[in-house]
Write a structure and sequence with these properties.
Layout lengths: L2 H7 L6 H9 L3 E3 L2 E2 L11 E6 L2 E7 L12 H4 E3 L3 H17 L9 H18 L3 H4 L4 H12 L1
Antiparallel strand pairs: 1-2, 1-3, 3-4, 4-5
Amino acid sequence: MRIDKFLWSIRFYKTRTVATEEIKKNRVSIGDTVVKSSKEVKEGDIIKIRKNQIDYKIKVIQIPKSRIGAKLVSLHIKDVTDKEQYELLKMRKMTQDYYRSRGEGRPTKKDRRDMDGYVENDIASDFTDWDDFFGESEDDGMENEVEEKS
């Protein structure tokens, strides 16, 4: 089976075209040699793939006949990637979360809608007549003006 089709069939890449493009960019190799998309994959081959800034290594156990379900992938390949690579990926994700954690920065559209709904409901429920609030009425104000003139 061709390597681009193999990587697509084991669900390493979403489409065969994406797999082919990654191979053209020299991000896929069998052993230590960079390969072309037409390279045939055999059982026992160790494939090195550069994806998400880490180097994956997978060993081919079986060649599937066509694209397989996610649960069946473990029957066809064995992940032999170094644990250090996964730790690097975890560290990168943590640094991205530190850069902008949820709730910080500009509000999203949903956040703005929630805030607008809260502010509108708050104003409508708390609306009071300011004259009543300060204890003045229109009659009291007129009497004060008359007293000042005299």
